[in-house]
Amino acid sequence: MQETIRKNKIIGSRCFSNYFWTFFLLIGGISFLLAGLSSYIKINLLPFTNSMQLVFIPQGLVMIFYGTLSLLLSLYILLMIILDVRIPQRVDGEAKRAIEEFAKATKDFNPRAELFDKAKL
Questions:
Q1: 68 — phi, psi (to 5°)?
Q2: Are 25 and 75 in contact (CB under 8 A)?
Q3: Cα–Cα distance between 28 and 70 in angstroms, integer?
């Protein structure tokens, strides 16, 4: 009997939503970072708003933190887009049989019970 191979198209990380979120997180992160830095150095780095009026210790520091966090998240998503990370949705053939055999072999294995047995000594 001939085994058929089924191919499913997996979009992976190169979908529109990832480009959308990367762009807006990058723009928002840069804006928050510049606003926080403007409140620290007292020079207006954003031309469309006056962020020098922010007090650095509560607002400026939080804006720098959120800006950095947003930039890191956008860089992470951008890296996933560049590497084109794909999550497999279906396992067929030899790999499926190997996973099923492993599941059957470890079905009765209970590490918690073995740990309690050793602790009773």
A1: -65, -40
A2: no
A3: 7
Q: Show the tokens assigned to 26.
A: 């990058």
* Token pair in block for residue 49: 């708003």
Question: In angstroms, rounded to a whole number, what is the distance separating the alpha carbons of residues 15 and 22?
Answer: 11
With a cut of 70, list the residues of the chain below it in pLDDT. Answer: 1-10, 87-92, 111, 114-116, 120-121
The residue among 75, 4, 2, 62 whose CA lies nearest residue 33 is 62
Q: What is d(CA 94, CA 90) in angstroms, rounded to the nearest whole number?
A: 12
Locate all alpha helices (DSSP H) within the chain, ordered by sequence: 16-41, 61-83, 94-105, 111-119
How confident is the model at residue 99, as a pLDDT? 73
What one-letter code names the amino acid at 85?
V
Amino acid letter, residue 93? G
pTM for this one? 0.65
